[in-house]
Design a protein that fits this description.
- This protein is an alpha/beta fold and 225 residues long.
- The protein has helices at 13-24, 31-41, 44-55, 61-72, 90-102, 117-125, 174-188, 190-195, 210-224; strands spanning 2-6, 28-30, 81-84, 109-114, 127-129, 136-138, 201-205.
- The protein has nine helices and seven strands, in the order E-H-E-H-H-H-E-H-E-H-E-E-H-H-E-H.
- A five-stranded parallel β-sheet has the order 2-3-1-4-7, with helices on both faces. The chain has a two-stranded antiparallel sheet with strand order 5-6.
- Helix 1 (13-24) crosses helix 9 (210-224) and helix 4 (61-72) packs parallel to helix 5.
- The radius of gyration is 17 Å and the shape is globular.
- The structure holds BIS(adenosine)-5'-pentaphosphate (AP5) and zinc ion (ZN).
- Zinc ion (ZN) is lined by residues 13-14, 32.
- Pfam families: ADK, ADK_lid.
């Protein structure tokens, strides 16, 4: 089972991924999470990626393809995996297809979360994340239990499971979002046309409350299996 979780910044990829992981029993591979971990660890890769990410640009194809290649080689990917935030350019798509073909595999399923651009600013600017786990919260749409009726702050926004403080991503600004959306439409959307003819693309209206979006994803992946 090789699946791509597709959609613009703020579509809900990271929010829905844990439920898909649980249902299919295969891991989520998020290039964004991997890159943020590299930045936090201060590795060579992290240093190269940091500035580009902060401004909402795309990290080079070679860098992310190598990250994915190394990650796919790990044992827990033997039964399949869910790609979140990858591929993002046609070049990455070609490299992914070639890499999978070598192993006699191919992309079996694309879940494409559809959300109009206008909705994404509020989602992105209100997002808080738990760095360690990648769990996403929202001040209005998905508040942590700790918030209650208080104002969102580092003291009131705490992870439900660990109680650790949440934080805001450096690229979650209106300005960086503008570049991220431009890149998405110019570089990433064409990937859907590439997989369309194989009949593996399932578009889902993700401009609805999270449980409704999940119900549609669950129906799609259950039907497929
Ligand atoms: P990445 O981490 O992949 O970011 P992204 O694609 O911009 O996507 P997001 O993580 O912002 O959105 P999401 O869909 O996961 O939203 P979430 O579920 O959190 O990449 C970051 C950067 O790394 C890139 O800009 C680039 O620089 C680099 N990079 C990564 N991969 C790369 C690649 N392959 N090639 C080159 N560069 C790469 O939800 C968002 C918010 O909305 C949350 O607050 C959530 O609570 C809320 N929410 C979710 N669903 C709903 C709903 N249904 N209703 C209301 N609110 C909702
Ligand atoms: Zn994400």
């Amino acid at each position: 089972k090789i699946m791509i979780l597709f959609g613009p910044p703020g579509a809900g990829k990271g929010s829905q991924a844990p439920k898909i992981v649980e249902t299919l029993g295969i891991p989520q591979l998020s290039t964004g999470d991997m890159l943020r971990a590299a930045v936090a660890a201060g590795t060579e890769l992290g240093k190269q990626a940091e500035g580009v990410m902060k401004s909402g640009g795309l990290v080079s194809d070679e860098l992310v393809v190598n990250l994915i290649k190394e990650r796919i080689a790990v044992d827990d990917c033997s039964k399949g995996f869910i790609l979140d935030g990858f591929p993002r350019t046609m070049e990455q798509t070609k490299m992914l297809d070639a890499m999978l073909a070598e192993a006699g595999e191919k992309v079996g399923f694309v879940v494409a979360l559809d959300v109009p651009d206008e909705v994404l600013t509020e989602r992105i600017c209100g997002r808080w994340v738990h760095k360690e786990s990648g769990r996403s919260y929202h001040i209005k749409f998905a508040p942590p239990k700790s918030l209650g009726e208080q104002e969102p702050s580092a003291e009131t926004m705490l992870d439900d499971e660990t109680g650790e403080p949440l934080m805001q991503r450096k690229d979650d600004t209106e300005e960086a979002l503008k570049s991220r959306l431009e890149n998405y439409h110019a570089m990433t959307v064409p990937i859907l046309d590439h997989y369309g003819p194989a009949g593996v693309v399932h578009k889902i209206d993700a401009n609805r409350p999270q449980p409704e979006v999940w119900a549609s994803i669950e129906a799609a992946i259950t039907y497929q299996n």
